[in-house]
Queue: 4 jobs
Job 1
Amino acid sequence: MANIEVKGLTKIYNKKIVLDDLNFTVKDGEFLSILGPSGCGKTTLLKILIGIEKCDKGSIHKGTRNITNVDPAKRGMGMVFQNYALFPNMTVLENVMYALKLKLKNKKNARERSLEMLKLVNMEEHINKYPHQLSGGQQQRVAIVRTLALKPDIILFDEPMSALDADNRLGLRKTIKELQKQFNTTMIYITHDQEEAFSMSDRVMVMKDGKIEQIDTPNKIYNHPANTYVKNFVTKHLRDKVSSIEKCTGIDL
Amino acid sequence: MKKRSYLNYFIFAFLAVTVFYPLAVMVSKVSWENFNSLVASNAFKDALSNSLFVTSISTIISIIIAYLLALTINRANIKHKTIIKVLITLPMLIPSISHGLGLINLFGNNGIISSHFNFNVIGPVGIIIGSIVYSFPVAFLMLDDGFNYIDNSMYYNAKILGMNKFQTFKNVTFCYMKKPIFSSIFAVFTMIFTDYGVPLAVGGTFITLPVFLYKEVIGLLDFSKGTMIGLFLLIPALVSFLFDTFSKDFAKNDGADDSEMKIENKYVRILLKTFMVIIILMLFVLIGSFVYYAFVDNPILNKTFSLSHLEYIIGDDFFAYFGNSIFISIFVSIIGTTIAYFTAYVTARRKSKLTKIVHILSISTLAVPGIVLGLSFTVAFKTSFIYNTFIILILVNIIHFFASPYLIAYNALQKVNENFEIVGKTFNISTFKIIKDVIIPCTKKTIREMFSYFFINSMITISAVSFLFSTNTMPVSLLINVYEDNLMLGEAAFVSLFILLCNVLMKFIMYLLNVIDRRRYKYGTNI
């Protein structure tokens, strides 16, 4: 039902090709990470998928429906941002209830559902706080359930953890995976962090200069990289770790 | 996509009709053959050199005072900064003509102080003092803001590098303060150069360029000559505008150190504080003189308490004029804030080539002095149905004061999270509803600031409206001029006090609303 099929997707900015003939599918309930250095076109791809930017060529299908030119609100997708985008003038509960109230047309049901959702991410104690009173990790949890509460078929994540510290990241990774299992939501996750992509995803898509270099399971990408670029990119964090150990210990690994 | 273009075109058209059309009409009606004879005339040469003379001296002193005050506030370990800032900026709440009036009360021919010493300040000295009082609070606000942008960790770096005090000033303080200092010099110069309130009140026979213009237009109805003089008044404003638009700004990084800095030498701190107290006391004396003149029957002959001045102005229909001003100011505030806010919304959050042009147009209103704007409206709309109505007064004030509130909103809206509208879109909530439910509540403080800026300035302005009022629409600030001309200083003082009170009340209401909000949102949301 929520299979995504992208065909020949191309985007050109000022005569520069930003996305070059992308073809891929995302299966229902799958967790796909899009991995690449900054400037490789992954955020542009996300914007086109959610519908806030138009592509120059190609099409996007959701199931059998062509959604290439469909309004963002009618795509059944939700989005989670790097800077949380929680409404600062509303409490945690009000943030989650805001869109739900309009969707369910019933304030009481919206409230109950919001409370349930907040409980899932252990935020029930904080429902009356304002976003600025929460830590980054807590804010992102609220932002995720705010999106999830509307039951989208697909959630897009735009580097949701790059503003968080290491401890918060580990916790949030677990939360996102658990929520995905529970709701069986398709998730497309943008990151430049190899470790994050490999530990969370069913499949990883490696991008460079607006092109797909490889799309496969973490295992296969790791063991059979399609080319030297992918090999270097996906093993970068390992090599970084090795060299820092070498520097600290003076032992040549 | 379409909606936002419409808004762009609407704003574009609005500014074109209200700013550029009147200016173009004004310039097109000038008979240029008289230009040479005007420039060669002694009256013009005198007025120009008088203006340059008093403006230069006042600007230098005004900036020095403002810089020292900003330094004191930021570097002398001061408590109760908010209240002190309010006191320092009190002169911004009364018309410029009142500053001249205050000086006459104190140092005029029979002033409270001068009558004991047999001297007076009528003439250039009076204009200089009045202009300083009128302009230094504006420079102070700009420089105080500049100090806030200094990354204080640079001072520690300077220390580590072994710089002496002069080197530190040159390489750190001046590096950050360059732009605010030059901006404030240009702004103050323009303010004083184009103001006719102070010189009209205390200038006596010493005629400055704006007074010359005013007399040509009001007295002799010579619009052509008035326009030619007006063009000269545009020059410094234009230079100031170009400087501000094209000079680079030092933006502070997020990680910058903004801890409290202190001048190490205790005696310098005490000196600065003393200076600040003296300035504030002088402002009190000036405002005190209004109270004295307003409530004393005759300040020279019988110094008894009396309400005769109040009775006189009430009999003179004071409250009708006061009502006019309140009516105009409220409409200017509501309409002006709305237009400026939505313009800023489009230019700050919907960037495109067209919005860049709209942005430049919006701030270009800064470059048109009130007296020139007023003149251009008179020439352009004399035969239209809005002439002699409240509409033209409201319109001219909106344009005259548009740039500052617009910029306040522009800066605030740029800081609001750029993803709110996208969140709305994915939630199936219209951008309009997101603006109403999220963006406006997040910028309430900014909106209040814009509202009170429009209100206060519309209450005190005389320059833009002086050619445009009719007997039914006359704003109360112009009454000061009328009373002063007739040597009714007590009455003029009363009017000034009423305006001051009204503006203080406006500030206080906004302050209270901000406090209530801060409590509600548990200290933090407002941008």
Note: The interface with chain B takes residues 50-52, 71-75, 77-79, 81, 83, 85, 87-90, 98-99, 102-103, 130, 132-133, 147, 150, 152 of chain A (CB under 8 Å).
Job 2
Amino acid sequence: MGRIVLDKVSKRFGDVEVIPPLDLTIEDGEFAVFVGPSGCGKSTLLRLIAGLEDVSGGNIAIDGSDATMVPPAKRGLAMVFQSYALYPHMSVRKNIAFPLKMAKMDQAEIDRRVANAASVLNLADYIDRRPGQLSGGQRQRVAIGRAIVREPAAFLFDEPLSNLDAALRVGMRLEISELHERLKTTMVYVTHDQVEAMTMADKIVVLRAGNIEQVGSPLELYHTPRNVFVAGFIGSPKMNLIDGAEAAKHDAHIIGVRPEHIDVTPSGGIWSGKVGVAEHLGSDTFFHVHDTGLAETITVRAPGEVSFRHGDAIHLTPRADAIHRFDAQGLRIA
Amino acid sequence: MARAVTNRRKSVNTILAWIVGLVIFFPILWTILTSFKTEAQAISSPPVFLFFDWTLENYGVVQERSDYMRFLWNSVIIAGGSTLIGVIIAVPAAWSMAFVPSRRTKDILLWMLSTKMLPAVGVLYPIYLMFIRLGLLDTRTGLVIVVMLINLPIIVWMLYTYFREIPVDILEAARMDGASLKEEILHVLTPMAVPGIASTLLLNFILAWNEAFWTLNLTAAKAAPLTAFIASYSSPEGLFFAKLSAASTMAIAPILILGWFSQKQLVRGLTFGAVK
């Protein structure tokens, strides 16, 4: 099966060190998500695992055997690309069958597996079309179909949903999660979207500038971010980060409070300010509060029925047990 | 928003385009018409356009005096051979430059193109001497080699731009799908590059067919292609205009017919990448 172990893996392009040596273990059957801002090295890390890039140092083991020097074709991994990367001159059927054909599987078995994948992914009606005649969502399904027929040791996803529109993205997110539930195969998924990371992952790996900032389950990252970067990156809307005198009151250099952990009242709170923009989502309302003397903007998440208008005075009370404290290095104070 | 074009403007543009097209085509049309005139009518003043005694006499004379088929065959060998060898050399070259570029790839491409900026006559002398030494003068082999080398930079450039259009993701997908290098090239790259390779072949065949400088200077009788056939009818004295025209028409006919049938492919090939 698919246990992937990275041991002091590093990557440099010329003189630029994109990924300093890092260690990471992805357990068999785990859904691991690499998340971080663009340019953080998450795609490079995935390509190192795939074998599409050579490591500059360290070792990669797949299933207990050293795969560092093994070409991508022999690693037993399947990859789904952001651009889908379908073969434009082949029908959907031939696209899905291609890896099996390369594996010299006999035709009856190929037909059986392709038919199976097509029915699982609702592609049966398009099976003889070319990729050019399909919509974005259908193309992505074909790419996933091409990956699953091989029954690989692990799936690698490189931002597979970022070319889809918002509604389709949510749908495909669920489909991929369901696929993982059904197949129980290791999946490594790269995204810059922390919502995708939170909703899909068993394990999130937060990356910045090639460094692993934190590894943990979605809720671990949400409740106990190891540093200011993770605190700001995980969670939507972003955590409010406050420094200066207010932080010093809590014996910290910086304190962080999530928008959903601040109560709003018309009077009598600990902090006060003026409502700037109010975003009404129906279920919730986000208030962007100015003139608090704490930070330029404090974002607050209130129930949908709470009503303040632009320019109204608003009073805020952070929940004492939900204040995150960070030291001068930006690290969490326990 | 589509740019508003009035109907009047559209018809004016159409008429202008037709005029420009006819002006460019006129010399060819005139050559073809002249080939059906008598020598006297061919130089008559004022010139006659359509109302003359149509005759096939010139074609008969030309065929009688020189063996058209031999020249045609030489042209086919030189254009076909140089194109085929050129593409065989250029495909791997363009492939490596497109998919495994080095820091100097751009420089090499520019350097190759720069050889096309050199006036051919500047290297005529050394190449002529080399041909004498190697016994290649007036041989089809020699001409295949020289015409191939002349057009090689263009073939490499064209193929390079086609290959660059093929997303590298698709090749990587094939690698992930377990394809070996051979299978990747055979099942994925080549089928995707076929339109590009085809239009490169076609354009290069036409360039080689029309190549006159080297074919005229490096041949005498044996290996002379159709360009030399035309030139042999241009004479400073005597009445040869109609026969020259007949020879020219016979020389350009095959390539005109080829171009006519392949124009769709050719236009697609030349604009590939520019419009998607």
Note: The radius of gyration of chain A is 23 Å.
Job 3
Amino acid sequence: MNSSSPLKWFATREGLYYVALAVLLVVLLPLALDPFRLNMVGKYLTYAFVAIGLVMCWGKAGILSLGQGVFFGLGGYCMAMFLKLEASTPEATAIQSTPGIPDFMDWNQLTELPWFWEPFHSFSFTLLAVIGVPVLLAFVIGFAMFTRRVGGVYFAIITQAIAAILTILIIGQQGYTGGVNGITDLQTLNGWDIRTDEARTILYFVCVGMLFLCLFVARLVQNRKLGRILVAMNAQENRVRFSGYDVAAFKIFVFCLAAAFAGVGGALFTLIVGFMSPSFIGIVASIEMVIFCALGGRLSILGAVYGALLVNAAKSGFSESFPELWPFAMGALFIGVVLAFPNGLAGLYQTYVMPLEDKIFKRNKGAKLEAKPAEKAAEPKPTAEKTPDYDPMIDSYSPEKS
Amino acid sequence: MFDGYTSSELMSIFAMQGFAGLSLFSVFVLMALGLAIIFGQMGVINMAHGEFMILGAYTTYLTSGFFQSYLPSLFGGYFFVAMVLAFLICAALGAFVEWLMIRRLYHRPLDTLLATWGLSLIMQQAYRSIFGAREVGVDLPEWMMGAIQVTDLVELPINGLFVMIIALSIAVGVYFLMYRSGYGKKVRAVVQNRPMAEAVGINSAGIDRATFALGCGIAGVAGAAFTMIGSTGPSSGQAYIVDTFLVVVFGGAQSLIGTIVSAFGISQAQSTMEFFLSGSMAKVLTLLVVVGILMLRPEGLMALKVRR
């Protein structure tokens, strides 16, 4: 889509990976799963937004944020506040001592709507806030830290502390935020009931659409000079600085981009799941988001989607049958991904599946579609293969750093 | 928030909360010392530190059970046996973990963080399977019960005082080990310039392993002391890990004195504010102030003067 010749791009190898993902998400999964399961896949996909952001932020630029849950949660809470206000009309809440405010405020003896809830009556403001609030916070954090050249583990710890602070704050301020239960009992979006099977299926497709939008934005960033500077910064920060680039500005940008993706994911999460609570923000939730990205392959934006899907599917699978084994599996996953295959599934795919693909590609240059069945297990990042119809400017790079 | 209190009342409140904050201070110092050694000297973030501490606590729990059933006459002294055992077990596990994963990851600090997080998940679930999800407590020996009356408003529980003494003596011990012993000299040499240290014949891999084991061992002692003032559950360690990291970073990563000062500051601020605000708001405010100061002064309170 961003290519100069869109149709040709879809026939390139990189394009085919996107087509394969689209076929999986738009055709295969909706056909194979009932609405309940499809809704769960939609929930997993909202985490993929965060994972794509982490690929850009951590994989490419080397900034590990352990507070992505904060941005996910802020996006989600913005959406939830709008939906909650819509659900708390004076008629629907007539039995409360103060009708017209959300039920949990009434339980906590609040008699009027707090000022920061007021703007969320407006849908357009909410849409703006879903991206704006996380980006603003990311900008403040990023500006304060990156201009002082704080990075690495310090940044990770401080973002983790911010996740802890926000969770404690939300749980503590029950009257304003719904406390530990979160904002629940969300019903309609501009009068459209989001709890029916039909609505959930539509929301799933909206989610897939937004996911591809984010994928293309991420791809756009990674394939331009911007993306290469990010990777260069990760490898040799000082050389990039000495070449005259403002390293802090690039870091702030990529951190804000990741926050924006996470915010969109959070808002969709609220719509698809129907509530938002602090448990999706905290330290544990935030660090789990990193493993989605790490399993898929920290350098691969497509891998991030598969990583989020696989880890979450495994989590629900384990939690249904062997809840006590899941932490072991999760722990082993963290250790295994880091020690054994730091490039995740995308790295494995590149090492083992791609050579096979190369053979097929070389033998039947005309019949490119035959390569497709081999792509189901895991997808790599866009390849470095040079195809004649490639515009050299948007040619993908091959990372030398693992 | 000070409305409605006379100045003498305020003084006693501050004194009371200050003494209450001392037990939080002891926990912070005990946990942060181990972390400061591992993080400050090696640059490794050990997210499983809290779980090492809990391992020490469970060791103490088992030891107290053993003394109760087989050696009731010696029950008064079980704590010292437990402390040594906790140190040995945690240090041994620490050395094993270092050998298994940490040594492969020294050049990738962010990955160490993720790997040790995985380890902490596994350890937590192991505790849950072995000891159950419920919190366990130990019986205090008789000499540790009761309190010392200082003034008619302020009284000090003996167990809290004892834990603080342990914390401070470990701090002093670590100081002498790091700055007055041959081992400490080697550690500091490796921190400052690894290739040079290797060139003069220091076994840097061995120093790394010993340092990691030492940090974990101190976490174990911290856990043993922790049982004296609170009960132990599988996820008690995780509750403190973020605070403790902030303590270490706030103090300045390579400064032991800084760690103690920041542990004191954070615990006192939190405990004093807890009286006037709700517990959660006190914690939020403390953490916010710490994070805010760290954003303005990323090197922490007492940083080594180095060029970045």
Note: The first strand of chain A starts at residue 188 and ends at 189.
Job 4
Amino acid sequence: MTNFLRSITKPTFHVNRLLSLVSLTILLNLFAFSAYSQAANVDMVKWKAGKAAFKNNCASCHNPLVKGTGPALAGALDRWTAEGKHQGIDGKTWLYRWIKNNNEVRAAGNPRGLKIFGEYAGVAMNVFPALTDADIEAILLYSDNSAMNTEAKVEPTAGASGTTGTETDSAFPTWILVVILALLICMVFTLNRLSGSLYRLTKESQGESVHAFVPFYKNKRIIILFGILVTVFFFYLLIQNATALGRQQGYQPVQPIKFSHALHAGKHQMDCQYCHSSASKSKHANIPSVSTCMNCHKVVQKGPVYGTEEIAKIYKYADYNIDTKTYGSNPKAIEWTRIHNLPDHVFFSHAQHVKAGGVKCQTCHGPVQEMEEVYQYAPLSMGWCINCHRQTEVNFDGNKYYSIYEKYHKAKAEGKMKGVTVEDIGGTECQKCHY
Amino acid sequence: MKEKYFYIVGAFTTILLIIFLIIPRDKRSPGWDYMPDMRYSKAYETFSSVDFFYQKENGKYDTMSARLPVLGTIPRGYIPENIEDKTDEGFLRSFCFKNEHQGYNQDSAFQNKYMEAGEVLKNPFKPTDDILAEGKELYLINCKVCHGIKGEGNGQIVELPDGSDGPYTARPPAYTSRLPTLKDGQMFFSVSFGKNTMGGYAPMLTPAERWKVILYIKDLAGLKEGVTPATDTTAKKDIVAAVVKP
């Protein structure tokens, strides 16, 4: 039996191995054909040194594969050697000289150097006299093979999805409870009806007089009780809806660009005030201009979710040509939809809260760093404002803004007051916000 | 007959209730208001689109409520209470130093202006503890993203916490490598109008804030010297006059 099994498994094993070998060679061939990413014959130690040197010296202006402030570096050596000899010196030597001090090469009248200088509108490259020939060799090796992945990255396991799965498993589904409850109520009604009928039948058989059967929907007591319940519930809903009218809690409009705060402020931990820079200076926390987006998206051209689709919209608004790296003359503002709208008869200043008060943005705007799409977190009602003003203690110590409240400082020093709330310094007076 | 009305009213109430319960609030709409004329401003709000300025020039539709200030407007903080004490020519010039290159393209005119800034502009602040603390606060908000906490060029979008490459591939050079070769004015120009892949921060930071950040950056790079403000008091009044005149 085992022999028989072996006779079957053995050849298939060989076939598998053969197949894997074939596929491996095909893969390798594919790698070899794709430009500048061949895996074979690359000195890994040198490659890593090149990567480090590239990051420290070149990366601020060059990218191996994408045109940045300077040209894409992949294949630079090939392009320089293809240029041929100039003044009896070969292209490789010229390139090495160019990297160390491009001014000298241009002064020597190298045609390729002058051409590149012209292509980039006369922006001179920095000089790197400290780089040795070995460094440059490593840098060029890295830039030709930059797409190669050396460190096998460990993919994060799906821990987050697992936890949510267990949560739903542990909780008993509510709809089953509802169905059981409905069945039980039905049973109560049918059994009640049944026992009533039986009771009447026995009474009738004994010859006693019986009241006529009244179904429950004609029973006056039940109708009155139901009427009261419905009215109470109706008024409850009416009040709820009436107070919600004019408040926009949960408002989540569709924005012109699918901008993710979860990615920018959450994953990449960019400060809120990087984009909303006037929050500490002005009444308004500004909506960033397109130039603020371009600060990073000149380089970051592809997003993790929508790829180039959403970022291309920024370029359209900025009138930026990604291929030529030039701006046009017709930029346009992005028409974002405003979410947090305070009524016109309320004054609110961001600067006062952020700068003087030191209030965290999340206090009013909620966990924006977790929002894929922003919604209004707080009700922004007057009761909500007043409540916070009553509860929040002002940071009296070391904040010069509050130095004029001498009475409270004295009371605090004497131990008469524990903390000074916003209400104490006039934060609930009508005229503070309505004038 | 009376009973019939009772049932009709009952049914109507129930239907209303069901409507209230079933129809959820549309999250894409701001909802209804009691008095829209009190809620929405008659005056133009800061970031809104208004018809008053509607103009079509060379195919441009401009309806932004945010307009450029009137010619000759003096920016906030431009003239401190006491000119003689608190400011100097280099600082005053940093308010009116314009970026004169075409669009945002960094051509040779841009380079010339950059070199000129190095000669003309001076930092009015001295690296006291207060100023450095303010500079640090601004640095952590605006610069840390790319330049890193210590100015090594490893900000959170350049290098992710696990050490792998972030989405921003243009790694800025460490401050210690490039900063010693630059003049204060050149740094100011770069912070204001951008340099290479870096964008301009003039929209986010006031000139005074930019100078404070520069002091903090120099402190990070270990450079202490070269912060001597100019003391020529005669020139500054001319500049004030020149700028105030529209």
Note: The longest helix of chain B spans residues 2-22.
